[in-house]
Write a structure and sequence with these properties.
The protein has 8 helices and 7 strands; from the N terminus they run βαβααββαβαβααβα. It is of the alpha/beta class.
Length: 200
């Protein structure tokens, strides 16, 4: 059976950097945004749309109407995106040893007994890391005040938590759902990766 490492992480905690370095040390495949790109390719949807759907719990569809004369239902591709995501993650895990970041991979691959990591840190560290990385996926961190950036980080993590709990029935970040929880507040994710590589 392939060695599978999954990484859940708070936004700004350095989980992505840790995962990339861990894959490099172990000489195995690394999957993160590649999953979104593959879903977009298979569904012919834009990567931006797929990312939005794949990172938020679904919104119950409802008709849009004006008075009593017009109504329509917005098409919902959520189920299609989720199915493709599950299939792709399983395919990737079956090919070789790998590190998979996010996407609820720890739950999707639970039958394969992955080594499950969760990475977190305090808010000042998240803000500092976002600014060092020069941005985040949504807004230019350097153009936001600390208060604004903190609020944005909290929003992203709230969405991740709701998504994870909706699709898995488990609590995001709860230590019992992971094999190792890592606090990067005072530690460099790259250095931590070297330690984790020895135990997983």
């Amino acid at each position: 059976m392939n060695k599978i490492i999954t990484i859940g992480r708070e936004f700004g905690s350095g989980g992505r950097e840790l995962g990339r370095k861990l894959a490099e040390i172990l000489g195995c495949a690394y999957y993160d945004r590649e999953i979104i790109a593959e879903i977009a390719k298979r569904t012919s949807l834009s990567e931006k749309y797929v990312q939005n759907v794949a990172e938020h719990k679904p919104v119950i569809p409802f008709p849009i109407h004006t008075g009593r004369t017009f109504w329509a239902v917005i098409p919902d591709y959520g189920q299609e995106v989720q199915k493709e995501q599950h299939d792709i993650i399983r395919e990737m895990a079956s090919k070789s040893d790998c590190v998979i970041v996010g996407r609820g991979a720890d739950y999707i691959l639970r039958a394969d007994n992955p080594f499950r990591l969760f990475v977190y840190s305090d808010m000042p560290s998240k803000i500092s890391r976002c600014r060092r990385n020069n941005a985040n996926d949504y807004d230019k961190g350097e153009e936001m005040s600390d208060k604004e950036l903190s609020r944005r980080i909290e929003q992203i993590n709230k969405a991740r938590s709701e998504y994870y709990e909706f699709y898995t029935g488990q609590k995001w970040g709860l230590p019992l759902n992971y094999d190792l929880c890592i606090n990067t507040t005072k530690n460099d994710p790259i250095e931590i990766a070297e330690f984790v590589a020895k135990i997983c």
